Each structure stands twice: as structure tokens, then as C-alpha cells.
TrEMBL record:
GO cellular-component term (any): cytoplasm
Pfam family, one: zf-RING_UBOX
Domain CTLH: 150-207
Species assigned in the record: Prunus dulcis (Almond)
Any GO MF annotation of the entry: ubiquitin protein ligase activity
Regions crossing the membrane: none
InterPro entries, per database record: CRA_dom, CTLH/CRA, CTLH_C, Fyv10_fam, LisH, Rmd5_dRing, ZF_RING_GID, Znf-RING_euk
Keywords: Cytoplasm, Metal-binding, Zinc, Zinc-finger
Name this protein carries in UniProt: LisH/CRA/RING-U-box domains-containing protein
Boundaries of every RING-type domain copy: 329-372
Presence of the UniProt keyword Cytoplasm in the record: yes
Subcellular localization: Cytoplasm
Length: 386
């Protein structure tokens, strides 16, 4: 809703700007036409016997320009534009609070961990010089150099793939094939398939067939359908772009395999595919608006906000930011924590520990399950780990 309101305000400003610009061009064209007529009249008088009085021609032009009244014509549209422009910043200030420090909490950070995440982010992006500079200025130990060398290898492979050179990628995949198999990755087959298509597209049918016998045959037992499709491509050697299998030449195939290699490379390094810093910032952007709203309402309880262990308002994040299970007690409507874990009751239903403690009068009596008629003994409830 907020974005819709802001977009509507922006559209109004853009519309007024277009109207003002169009009106300005129209007035300028009118002025230009009158000036050109006057110039033509003066120039034509030089080519004939009749002479035109320059002063009278200019006086006539002055009268016509006065009738056009350019300032009066532009005044109304410019006034409307100025009004829309003056209101737009107010809309932005209303919905976008520039002071995000209101949602800040004094939390102790492990400086070394934060620096490690930032330095690793630079290396992930291939910004090795910046990463080195950051590590030096942050006075971080040389242990980060190992991470740098690993990502340098990955970027060398990716850079080679951009130039259609699969040799580094194939060497890495072959070397790490025993580690890739448990992950269920078919990266090596995808790389060999790309190489096979490259050879075929160059018109070397015999070379492609020999490559298939050497490198694709070992995958036949588990990937027969894919290999059969590649074998049919032999009939279209040198003209694969005009065949039913022209999609195999799409650059998107290279992008997908490059992405898969990057994912598997990070996985073997024990690193996430996405940069932790990027994920943290993206999640923070989504979670910031409700926290700012809360602090605007609870401006007088800043100290209480600083001492809270849990977020005071629900913060909805997209699924890509949900990395573990979340349980909300159906009785208290509160999210479970380490101090208040979900508890499995004898009837099979689940409540949080504090709700069970309250309903059982601190474990002194049994109680009815809120979802079924079973009697529950709190001593028989067990912590539930998702």
C-alpha cells in the first residue's frame, strides 16, 4: 500500500513535468516561427526593390511576441509542477524514515566475525585487492588468505568458462568427483555435455563421437536419456543451430552450468552459495519497516526496547530468509525460544513450555488438551526438536 501511494505521487509529478515540458516546447516553437517570419521578410526585402523598415518589422515582431505572452502561458503549468514537486518529498518523508537508527539495538558483536564476513564478501565478488586492503586495515590475521586463494581458483575457472574454455572446470570437477557424487551433483556430466556440443558445432563429428565414447559413456547407466539426445545431434554436425536441438547452443546453458559449478565449489568449501553479508542486508531491509513503526509508536520506551531478548513485533520475511523451523504456541501466540521450547504432549499435540506450566498450575495438576479431550500430565511432556 505504501509503495502504491508513493508510486501514485511520483506518477503525478512525472505527468506534470511532461505537461510543463510540452507547453514550454509549444511556446518556444511559436516564438521561433514569428522570429523566422520576420527574418524572411527582412531578407526578402534585400532581394527586391522595395525596402522594409527594420524598425517597423521589429516593432511588429515585438507586438506578436507580446500577444503570445510566453510567461503567462508557462506560469500555470509551471505552478502545477512546482506544487507537485513540493508535495513529493513530504510523501517520501512520511513513508521512508531517513533515521533508521531508531531501530538500532545495542548488541555485542564479535568484531572478528563481522570482519571475516565482510572480507569474504569482497573475495566472493572477485574484489581481491579491496578484500586485502580491508583485511589489512581491520588488522585481521592471515588466516583469511586461505579463503582468498580458494575463491581466486573459483574465479579463474569461471573466467575461463566465459571464454568457452572448459578445461579448468573439468579438471576441478574430475579432481573433486568423489566429493560431488554424495551431493547428487551431475556437474561433471553437464561440463562434458557442453564440451561435446562445442566440438560438434565446429563440424568435427569424429572428434565428438570419440569424446562421447571416452567421457560420456561412463554416465550411460544413470543418464541414458540425456546421452541419447546428444548422440542424435551427431546427425546435425556443423548445423546444430538449424536442428530440433538448437536450444543446446543457448548461452543460458553455460550460465546454468557456471552457476552450478559456483554452488558446488562453495559447498565443498563449507561456504554458502549466497554471500552472508548480502543475505543479512536483504533480510534487514525487509525487517526494518515494522521495527521503525514500532519505535515510532513506542518512542518513550527506548530503554525497554534495548533490553528485549525477542523482537516485540512479528517480522515477516520471505522464504529465502527462513533457515530453520519456527513454532508459535497456539495458546500464548508466542514464538518458541530456548527458554520456552515446544513440548510434545502425550496426546500428540504441541504447546510451548510456559503455556503447559501455566495450564498445569506449575505441574501440580493435569489439564485438558485445548485440541482434544485428552487429559495431559505435564511430567509426561517432552521437549520437541524440529
Amino acid at each position: 500500500m505504501e509503495l502504491t501511494t508513493i508510486k501514485d505521487a511520483f506518477d503525478r509529478v512525472a505527468k506534470k513535468q511532461k505537461l510543463s515540458s510540452s507547453k514550454a516546447r509549444e511556446v518556444i516553437d511559436q516564438i521561433d516561427q514569428e522570429i523566422q517570419k520576420t527574418l524572411q521578410k527582412i531578407q526578402s526585402s534585400n532581394d527586391c526593390e522595395s525596402q522594409v523598415d527594420y524598425k517597423s518589422a521589429l516593432a511588429e515582431l515585438k507586438v506578436k511576441l507580446k500577444d503570445i505572452a510566453p510567461l503567462s502561458q508557462l506560469e500555470s503549468t509551471q505552478k502545477e509542477l512546482n506544487g507537485a514537486l513540493s508535495k513529493y518529498p513530504k510523501h517520501l518523508e512520511k513513508f521512508f524514515n531517513p533515521d533508521i537508527s531508531k531501530a538500532y539495538r545495542n548488541i555485542d558483536f564479535d568484531t572478528h566475525t563481522v570482519n571475516e564476513i565482510i572480507g569474504s564478501h569482497f573475495y566472493r565478488q572477485g574484489l581481491f585487492e579491496i578484500g586485502d586492503c580491508f583485511r589489512t586495515e581491520a588488522k585481521e590475521p592471515e588466516s583469511e588468505a586461505a579463503v582468498k586463494s580458494q575463491f581466486q581458483e573459483m574465479f579463474q575457472i569461471v573466467e575461463a568458462m566465459k571464454h568457452r574454455n572448459l578445461e579448468p572446470a573439468l579438471n576441478w570437477a574430475v579432481t573433486n568427483s568423489d566429493k560431488l557424487k554424495p551431493n547428487g551433483s551431475d556437474l561433471l556430466l553437464k561440463l562434458h555435455s557442453l564440451q561435446f556440443v562445442e566440438i560438434l558445432q565446429k563440424g568435427n563429428r569424429d572428434g565428438a563421437l570419440q569424446y562421447a565414447r571416452t567421457y560420456l559413456a561412463p554416465f550411460a547407466s544413470d543418464h541414458m536419456a540425456e546421452i541419447q539426445k546428444l548422440m542424435v545431434c551427431l546427425l546435425w554436425t556443423g548445423r546444430l543451430d538449424r536442428s530440433p536441438y538448437s536450444h543446446l547452443l543457448s548461452p543460458a546453458n553455460w550460465d546454468k552450468v557456471t552457476g552450478e559449478l559456483t554452488r558446488q565449489f562453495c559447498n565443498l568449501l563449507g561456504q554458502s552459495y549466497e554471500s552472508p553479508l548480502s543475505v543479512t542486508i536483504a533480510a534487514g531491509i525487509q525487517g526494518l519497516p515494522p521495527l521503525l513503526k514500532f519505535m515510532n509508536v513506542m518512542a518513550g520506551k527506548r530503554q525497554e526496547w534495548q533490553s528485549m531478548k525477542q523482537l516485540p513485533v512479528p517480522v515477516e520475511l520471505d522464504r529465502e530468509f527462513q533457515f530453520h523451523s519456527i513454532f508459535v504456541c497456539p495458546v500464548s501466540k508466542e514464538q518458541s525460544t530456548e527458554e520456552n521450547p515446544p513440548m510434545l504432549m502425550s496426546c500428540g499435540h504441541v504447546l510451548c513450555k510456559q503455556s503447559i506450566t501455566k495450564m498445569s498450575k506449575n505441574g501440580t495438576k493435569s489439564f485438558k488438551c485445548p485440541y482434544c479431550p485428552s487429559d495431559v500430565n505435564s511430567a509426561q511432556c517432552r521437549p520437541l526438536v524440529f
